[in-house]
Design goal:
Layout (H helix, E strand, L loop, with lengths): L2 H8 L9 H12 L4 E4 L8 H4 E5 L10 E3 L2 E6 L3 E5 L6 E6 L12 E3 L2 E5 L4 E6 L5 E7 L9 E3 L2 E5 L4 E5 L5 H6 L4
Antiparallel strand pairs: 1-2, 3-4, 4-5, 5-6, 7-8, 8-9, 9-10, 11-12, 12-13
């Protein structure tokens, strides 16, 4: 890490000097430890130590939000690292890289139809069979960057790339086709 950048970040009023308050804020930030944790709700007073059920410190996402889907907690980290945790204990169920999508991730994973969908910055959309022992079903290259989180709506998946908006899903049968049993 660059000392200049550290100094610039610590110099909150940009006057070229670190005052006591700025130094204390800088030290406080340097001692923070990131984690994903489960917290029991309820109680009175300071429940910090009593109500933390578990913490997980490794392979934490920098931007994507965690996903709780079908009783599995998923974390998506840059490099295509997908981690599945048991939400009751915080233990790792499975961790691995999404082959074909070893990119940076800004969008969050989403779950629908028994699958997890992830979209990398480079436009690789992974379709993953959900579960404790998840597996990659497909990786699709959109040939366009993706920063937005895919959106599952009414059995369809909307995906916005830098230059386009896509909708994936089955076309519902019209009433006429449903009556005759024919399809387009």
């Amino acid at each position: 890490m660059s000392y200049e950048k550290d100094f610039d970040d610590a110099d909150l009023n940009a006057d070229g000097f670190l005052e006591e308050r700025e130094w204390e804020k800088y030290r406080e930030r340097r001692t923070l430890v990131n984690s994903v944790m489960a917290v029991r709700l309820g109680g009175a007073g300071d429940m910090t130590d009593k109500n933390i059920l578990w913490r997980f410190y490794k392979s934490l996402p920098n931007v994507p939000s965690p996903l709780l889907y079908r009783n599995v907690l998923y974390l998506m980290k840059e490099g295509g690292i997908l981690t599945a945790l048991d939400p009751a204990t915080g233990s790792v169920l499975k961790q691995g890289r999404l082959k074909g999508a070893l990119d940076f991730y800004y969008s969050s994973p989403v779950g629908a139809d028994g699958k997890i969908f992830t979209a990398s910055e480079d436009g690789h959309v992974s379709v993953i069979k959900a579960g404790a022992d998840w597996e990659v079903l497909a990786v699709n290259d959109m040939n366009d960057p993706v920063y937005a989180t895919p959106a599952p709506v009414d059995r369809q998946l909307f995906l916005r790339t830098r230059n386009a908006l896509y909708c994936f899903g089955k076309t519902p049968q019209t009433a006429e086709h449903a009556e005759t049993g024919t399809r387009d």
